[in-house]
Amino acid sequence: MYSAGDLGNLGVRTFFVISGFLITGLIASEREKTGAVDLAAFYMRRALRIFPAFFVFVFVAVLLSRIGFAHVDRRDFLHAVTYTSNYRGNTDNFTFRHLWSLSVEEQFYLLWPLTFASLSLATGKRTLAAVLVAVPIVRVALWSAVPGYETYIGTAFESVSDALATGCLIALLLPRLKRTPWFDRVVFSRLFPMALVAIWIANRQTNHPKFFWLLCIPAMNVLIGLVMVRYVERPSLPFGRFLNARPVAAIGVLSYSLYLWQELFVIQGRTPASWLQTFPANLLMACACAVVSYRFVEKPFLRLKARAVRTSAEPGLVASPGPVTS
């Protein structure tokens, strides 16, 4: 049976590929235009986007844990505020458990822009290609050699970073790929949506761990990336129109706040702590919290972020990558 956990893992993997693609596209475009990456401006924009809503959520969750609605212990809290929840290991506490994926994102934001800014474009591509080769081998090697590592294999940065690297590499290769006739014939063919079936089949191979970690995950990452490119480049295709429909776009606007707050309203253990954690009240509450978070926390800081973008030409920590070559 295909479980909700399988779908959740596939969703997070998709998010990682898209995130790598978008962030790399932004910093690559900046470097192409200016010859450098303004790292100070990048990190300021990320902080204004991520930190305010996150720390409001953490603060509220800690308060709710005092009355038994949420579950937060000292270790959960420390991992959350240091963005290391992906190394928390197994826990029965749902409240912060989902933050492992945000921790991976923050570690990616810290490492990749610095790396990209210090390398030539060609070296950056080779580095990403090396990550795509090395991480699946590392996954299997650590699982085989380190007792208990299976607890972390789905969340540790060194085990999941190939999804992000896949999105990064596709972003850097896309200008050249779009000039390649075979790429257009394959990615934009009528049969290409069958890639979704291949992704679904590959994602069900968890009963064969080595095969899954070594081959299925890299295949899924690449196919997810190509599906993404198909609908980014051709939004007029039927599924592209669905993704750009107003209700779906509205969910996209609230996605970060929904991600943060939804975990408070899932069943904590075998029984709900409150009727607010049962359907449909839990869905309504998650959406209501997301709307409030977006309106009163995210949106003001997004306006501040927009002003920061306009003034980011001021002197700061700018890393020059040297010659920009392909």
Explain what this protein looks like in three dimensions.
By secondary structure, the chain is an all-alpha fold. It has one domain. Helix content is 69%, strand content 1%. The chain has twelve helices and two strands, in the order αβαααααααααααβ. The chain has a two-stranded antiparallel ribbon. Helix 1 (4-34) runs parallel beside helix 4 (100-118), helix 5 runs antiparallel to helix 6 and helix 5 (121-145) packs antiparallel against helix 9. The longest helix is centred in the first third of the chain and has 31 residues, at 4-34. The protein starts with a helix and ends in a 7-residue tail after the last strand. Residues 313-326 have low confidence and may be disordered.
Give short descriptive properties of this protein:
69% helix; mainly alpha; 1% strand; 326 residues; 2 strands
Tertiary shape: globular
Find the structural class using helix and strand composition: mainly alpha
**Which spans have pLDDT < 50 for at least 5 consecutive residues?**
313-326
Overall mean pLDDT score? 89
Distance between the termini: 46 Å
Give a quick precis of the structure.
This protein has twelve helices and two strands; from the N terminus they run αβαααααααααααβ. By secondary structure, the chain is mainly α. The protein has one domain.
Per-chain topology:
Blueprint: H1 4-34, E1 37-38, H2 39-65, H3 74-81, H4 100-118, H5 121-145, H6 157-177, H7 181-187, H8 194-203, H9 209-233, H10 238-243, H11 246-261, H12 281-310, E2 318-319
Antiparallel strand pairs: 1-2
